[in-house]
Amino acid sequence: MNRQFKILYKTSIIILAILATLLIGSVILITIDAEIFRTYLVILTEPLKTKIQFTEVLIRAIPLSIIALGITVAYRAGIINIGAEGQMAIGILTSTAAALAFYNVPRPFNIIIIVLAGALGGGIWGFIPGILKAKLKVSELLSTVMLNYIAAQVYTFFLRGPMIDPAELTLGSGTPQSMRLEKSVWLERLIKGTRLHTGIFIVILLAILIYVLLWKTSFGYKLRAAGASSKAAKYGGIKVAFFITISMVISGAFAGIAGGVEVIGVHHRAIEGITGGYGFSGLVVALFGGLHPAGILPASFFFGLLLVGADMTQRIVGVPANMVQVLEGIIILVIVSAQQVMNDKYLMDKIWKKINTKEAN
Amino acid sequence: MDFVFNILALGIPFSVALLLASLGEMFNQRSGIFNLGCEGIMAMGAFIGILVPYAAGHGGPTPEIFNLFGILAGALVGALLGLVFGLVVITFKAKQGIAGIGMQLFCVGTAGTLFRHFVGGTQSVPGIGNLDIPILSEIPILGSILFSHNILVYIAFLFVPISAYILFKTPWGLRVRAVGTYPRAADSLGINVNRVRFQALAVGGALAGLAGAYLSLCQAKMFSDEMIAGRGFIAVALVYFGHWSPVKIMWGALLFSLAQSFQLAIQGQGINFPYEFAVMLPYVLVILTLAFSRDKKKQAPAALGIPFDREKRI
């Protein structure tokens, strides 16, 4: 097998994977009588046409990338964290509470406190499945999903009860939302007339942090070793249980930070529906970005584009916004299939031999 | 008294969707496949189940028979989706946990997309009514708890002994258990491992689809995006809880549905207890049982989650 063949083999699988994604998506689009080409075109280009829409893409990309960075840490330690949705919700609660309490602390420090509070809330919510997995071998896939449903209830409980805006009670409308945050804790707007905020710098900071942590420290090396082969790592003296727990804490903390940044950057109060699907989308972003910060940043932009684009297809071509979930599902299925086929040396060998015998004849 | 009665009377119909889906998941896992897409397949089953009678009646009243077609169509689509999952995890050998999440997103998204196109807003259907079993349903108290449900409830509980029989007493059941425990040995005896796994996935998918159709046609009598509400994931957890055996799974399903009806009963009684904490009860229960049911590793099918490749050396 030569190098050229290997590259050819891998690129053809990537091309096949992209075609498969578009094809399966098209089958759904045909079923609902939509124009296939136009739908894809609207999703991919329409949000780039105006300044407002373009910044909306970036706004969606901010929480997506923070969550995906966190999920990467867990994934590299061998854990699939599908609980980012719940961890984000708890992070929103804790950071909102911090923002209400510490609004008059001088400027950079109050932001730091709020972000750390979000990390604390999300981290606790990530610690639960982490320790359950490490000590009691509870499947993180099931525990994180359950914690998502629990977090959703905790979230509405706080927004309806202890944290409800007093004005809602006096007005009697009872909308479950917190008090509006003081202007002193809002993140600055980057471009006038849009909602794009300075949270984007936090993303870059966190991406660098994760890169250094995972690839430039012995902590990161051990964490990745625990995920790549837990038995070998244990034999090598790495405390696998510790790295499983701590990676889930970091993963949850990042989801919590995403929630906090979303509150002080975009909504300026805790309202219902902030988390809306970011947890699963973040997982897709992490996988699509190759579980590496350098891939996650562009991937989060791409999925921000999909999310904004999907909202627009409803209006322009009559395709429900749920279509983005369909595409996310297909992308996961195609990526995990393609990865396996791509690294299947037996299959590669088989095809190589077939081609060579043909040439010999 | 009324309080306890309400809990029991609601608990049995609530358990049906969980029971059907986790019996299906049991077949998947016994053959060595961990299918987390169960939640999604249920969503598709729920949508298809309601689509058939809705489309047949053009919004008007539909003959009862179309409800039956809806249920069958839900099971059929579930079986097909089980095979699609098989393509990903058996043919392409993708990692099963993450592939299941992909399957779940794909199915939930597709159900939502198609629902908005073909049905539109919230539409309730007459669905399937209760079938009182003559004489037995007239027994005071017990009669209405046990013998006054719709037909699928009885069928679901019949599936418990049926699946136990299939799994432990038929050649196919033996093959399923063999490919899930030691596929290489099964292969050496001429069993086509991957074919048996595909078959088990089809059976599991059909049961999940049926569970979904039950939810939409018999329980909610409508469809919405969030109607499955994690029942697919709970069903997967129940398989662990029930140690991969039909009867224990049934007890698990009853326990969880009683937790759910207990929660509703509390709300109905106007007891001063935060509603949100009542709703989270079943989910907390899942985590607790997963954490504290002992020896769960010992009884799991040995080849669970491992793809089979007959050409590969171990």
Q: What do you see in this structure?
A:
The complex is a heterodimer of chains A (361) and B (314). Chain A contains 15 helices and no strands. The model of chain A has no long low-confidence stretch (mean pLDDT 92). In chain A, helix 9 (218-228) crosses helix 11. By secondary structure, chain A is mostly helical. The two termini of chain A are 18 Å apart. Chain A is globular, with a radius of gyration of 22 Å. Chain A is 76% helix and 0% strand. With 314 residues, chain B is mainly α. Chain B has one domain (2-122, 144-299): ABC transporter involved in vitamin B12 uptake, BtuC (Orthogonal Bundle), CATH 1.10.3470. In chain B, helix 7 crosses helix 9 (193-220). Chain B is globular. The chains are: A mainly alpha (361), B mainly alpha (314).
Could you tell me the mean pLDDT of chain B? Answer: 88
Indicate the proportion of strand residues of chain B.
under 5%
Named CATH architecture of chain B: Orthogonal Bundle
Report the oligomer: heterodimer
Mean pLDDT of chain A: 92
As residue ranges, the low-confidence spans of chain B are none
Summary of the model, kept short:
Chain A contains 15 helices and no strands. Chain A has helices at residues 3-31, 36-45, 51-76, 84-101, 107-136, 140-160, 166-171, 199-215, 218-228, 230-235, 240-267, 278-288, 293-316, 323-342, 345-360. The longest helix of chain A has 30 residues, at 107-136.
Detail the topology: elements first, then pairings.
The complex is a heterodimer of chains A (361) and B (314).
Chain A: H1 3-31, H2 36-45, H3 51-76, H4 84-101, H5 107-136, H6 140-160, H7 166-171, H8 199-215, H9 218-228, H10 230-235, H11 240-267, H12 278-288, H13 293-316, H14 323-342, H15 345-360
Helix pairs in contact in A: 1-14, 2-13, 3-8, 3-11, 3-12, 3-13, 4-5, 4-6, 4-11, 4-12, 5-6, 5-11, 8-9, 9-11, 12-13, 12-14
Chain B: H1 2-30, H2 38-57, H3 64-91, H4 96-118, E1 131-132, H5 142-146, E2 148-149, H6 151-169, H7 171-181, H8 183-188, H9 193-220, H10 231-241, H11 246-269, H12 275-279, H13 281-292, H14 296-299
Antiparallel strand pairs in B: 1-2
